[in-house]
Amino acid sequence: MGCVDAHVHLDVRSYEDIERMALSGVRTVVTCAHGPYPNMTAEVYSALFRRLLEVETWKGEKAGLTMAVGVHPGGVPDNMSDVLLEVEELLSHEDVIAIGGLNENSDDREIQVLKVQLELAQEHEVPIIIHTPSKNKVEITEKVLEILNSSGINPYLTLWITPQRRPSRSSVRKGTRSG
């Protein structure tokens, strides 16, 4: 039986890293879009998504690559609606199985991006991958839980990624997955 790694950024991993993952028993990899760079634009996100689909899927074939796409709150572009339209279009691609990795740092734009992506996940019945922030973890996680609870998203479609070895009880709600 193989393992699943549900939170990888293959665009910053070497082919050798992927090969080691496969040799270690990882059979499925979900590479997550990210954008922790300031001044992100729709064009930069589009280039990232294309790279994930065209280059990283080739690199990740050994590990059964699948993808998650999304707008990272650390890099919300001014033309956010263009990126969200592209995210929605990419959800029809066979290798795109989730939206992520998402988190929220409490700014109003970031909250709006999270809410729109939750709506997309519900509409397309795909999981979301939420990464807890490194700062203000409890406060922000509680805020994200409020947003999730009010969104009506199926809790079984949420996966929490946390840097902690064991997630705190407050960071997980019934039905969500954490790792």
- Spans with pLDDT under 50 lasting ≥5 residues? 170-175
Radius of gyration: 15 Å
**Overall pLDDT confidence:** 78
Tell me how many strands there are: 7
Q: Specify the number of helices.
A: 5
Report helical residue fraction. Answer: 25-40%
* Quaternary structure classification: single chain
Strand content: 15-25%
Tertiary shape = globular
Distance between the termini: 18 Å
Which sequence of SSEs, written as H and E, runs from N to C? EHEHEHEHEHEE
Strand order of the largest sheet: 1-2-3-4-5-6-7
Structural class: alpha/beta
Major β-sheet, in short? 7 strands, parallel
Short account of what is shown:
This protein is an alpha/beta fold.
Describe the overall structure:
- Helices cover 39% and strands 20% of the residues.
- It is an alpha/beta fold and 179 residues long.
- Strand 3 (65-69), helix 3 (80-90) and strand 4 form a beta-alpha-beta unit.
- The longest helix is centred in the first third of the chain and has 18 residues, at 42-59.
- The protein is globular.
- Mean pLDDT is 78; it is low at 170-175.
Layout of secondary structure:
Elements: E1 3-8, H1 15-23, E2 26-32, H2 42-59, E3 65-69, H3 80-90, E4 96-102, H4 108-124, E5 128-131, H5 137-151, E6 158-161, E7 177-178
Parallel strand pairs: 1-2, 2-3, 3-4, 4-5, 5-6, 6-7
Defining key terms:
5 helices, globular, alpha/beta, 179 residues
